[in-house]
Amino acid sequence: MRGKCALSLFFAENENHNMPMEWNIDGWQRLTAIFGLIGDGRTHALVPIRSGVRYQAKLVVKNGNVRTFLETELCNDVRCKPVVYKDIYCSAVRDEADDVILKLVNWKEEQKIRICFDDTSDYHGIVSCMSGFSLSERNSMEEPERVVPGEFSVEMRNGQMEWLMPGQSVVVMCFNKATV
């Protein structure tokens, strides 16, 4: 490796031959990093890369660990965790207006879920739901609104509600406390 150009080494593809891991050495920013489905460890390192100097790069993959070296200096040391698939992925945040924003992804079939907040207030919610389309459907210049989310209202009582989550869907729910 020589100069200020980047070098990327791809390795460790999954069984579907996608999402490979990548070791990137960037001579311009002087960073080295490992990208992909990784777990614990140092994944970015500032390394002194000088123009016109030849470097020896070494990548070691052993027992779920990935270690990278420039010359003899350890740059990255990462333990790769196995991927654990969940039925539904979710995240929630309460914003400065005390509204709750809930994001849900269901990559499987339709499922009934229970949503519980940490208080017993009543909430009004607006739901934006992307579902009912085949995974290969796309918008195009000819059909710019072929795949669009549906929007509707929901009500939550006492900080709880059950909801039928559509299969293979992405949902954003925005809740605010109901006014009396």
Describe this entry's structure for a reader.
This protein is an all-beta fold. It folds into two domains: 73 residues, Exo-inulinase, domain 1 (Jelly Rolls, Sandwich), CATH 2.60.120.560; 90 residues, Immunoglobulin-like (Sandwich), CATH 2.60.40. It is built from no helices and 15 strands. Strands 9-10-15-12-13 form a five-stranded antiparallel beta sheet, with no helix packed on it. A hairpin with a 2-residue loop joins strand 7 and strand 8. The protein starts with 6 loop residues before the first strand and ends with a strand. The mean pLDDT is 82.
Quick overview of this protein structure:
With 180 residues, the protein is mainly beta. Helix content is 0%, strand content 51%.
Defining traits:
four-stranded antiparallel β-sheet, 0% helix, 2 domains, elongated, 180 residues, Jelly Rolls, Immunoglobulin-like, mainly beta, five-stranded antiparallel β-sheet
How are the secondary structure elements laid out?
Blueprint: E1 7-11, E2 21-26, E3 31-35, E4 40-42, E5 44-46, E6 57-62, E7 65-70, E8 73-79, E9 88-94, E10 100-106, E11 111-116, E12 123-130, E13 150-156, E14 160-165, E15 169-177
Antiparallel strand pairs: 1-2, 2-3, 3-5, 4-8, 6-7, 7-8, 9-10, 10-15, 11-14, 12-13, 12-15
